[in-house]
Structure formats: C-alpha cells, structure tokens
Amino acid sequence: xxxxxxxQTIQLLxxxxxxxxxxxxxxxxxxxxxIYVSGRQGVPSEWKVDGLxxxxxxxxxxxxxAGVGIVQQRQEWTVVLVDYxxxxxxxxxxxxxxxxxxxDARFSFSPExxxxxxxYRIRIPDLEIDRLYPPQ
Length: 136
Prior knowledge:
2 helices, elongated, 136 residues
C-alpha cells in the first residue's frame, strides 16, 4: 500500500453516509475536506478546521523481519483523528469505520480535556514479503 491508496481508502470510508470528515477553510475562503498528508510540514497554521480532521503521516515507520530466504517488510502507517466539534460523535464513528476496514490496527485514544480536543492515534500495519537479495 502507498500513501495515495491509504488516503483514498480512508477518505472513502469516512465520507460515507453520514459524511464524518470536517472541512478546512483556506485563507481565501475556499473549503476543502479536512484530510491532510503530513510530510516535512504539518497542516498550515492559517487553515481553519471545523469538525473531524484526519492527518496521515506521509511515510510509514519500518520494521523489517528476516525469514528463511525472505524478509517481511513490516511497516505501520500513522493516522491521527482529531474532533474539533466537542459535542459530536464523529470521532468514535470514524474510529469504528477504520477498525472495520483495518481490524489489525492499533488505536490509542486521548479524551477531550479543557486544553485538548479528543483524538485517536491509529497505527495501521502493512505487511509485504520480499525475497532476500542473493549473497554477493
């Protein structure tokens, strides 16, 4: 799986009925879905967010494991859901939708407090099996 496939899958999951994805309002007033792939920079500070924000790390963390003549390319994608609508149930509904598509994902919940919005940090495993390079 690559980042484009993961982003598209999550967007399709969360834009179902009902649509759970919030909106970014750009400085010029344009509104776009609040799904952001975070690479070297995070979400621009001048973007306003309303509702559920989805931030996906551009690169997975790698954890290869050697086998007999193969290597398991274990990697994990990190997805963070943050609900800026304090009375909404979108955060829980979004986590449930993602768990049905990725049942082996790990979910870490941080409840809403007086200084932080409620959020889930989700680690989605992705396994590929490759042959080892022949010895030189």
